[in-house]
Amino acid sequence: MREPVSGHRAPGQVVRGAGDIVVGVDGSAASTAALRWAALQARALRAEVTVVHAWEPTVRGLAPYAPVSARPTAEEERLRAAQVLAATVRDVFGQRIDTCVRAVLVEGPPAPVLLRYARGALLLALGRGAHGELGLSPVGAVGRECLRHAVVPVVAVPAATRTPAMSPPAGAPMAVPSGRGAAWPRPPRATSRTPARTPCAD
Q1: What is this structure's pTM?
Q2: CATH number of the structural domain spanning residue 79
């Protein structure tokens, strides 16, 4: 795996190959499931995987009267975010990470960051909850913004949990075209936009 990229980037400036599968992770079980699903799709599509973790300073969410001791430094927060990203990648790929996987750490609001990295990608994969009616729950705020503004397909993958017999499989992703409410019956097929480069190793 290439070393995680960290730093401030100008809007629209993204260092990655076109045709990647972009995955947003936040340390949750659902985002881990999304990365695991994306890894399988990458092998089928002969694509690379760009794993993106966007983080924001905690101080923005603290009350003005919060004690200074409750406010971590920017470096502490960056290291914590890097640990979340590294742990998620290791959880899915183990200690030996293929070079077709790239981890990116970015400071900024999650939705705009993910939308920027998804430009020109095959698809954007996100995690979602696995509870609610028929095992589906409303997509979170970040997911909703991505669905509204993404120019590529967005796939929402639930965390693997036990569901009632009448519910869809917990690991079944829900894919919707960006900007539309219609659901796709299955993820995009591997018959188009296949990157001409070395595939991920099995």
Answers
A1: 0.71
A2: 3.40.50.12370
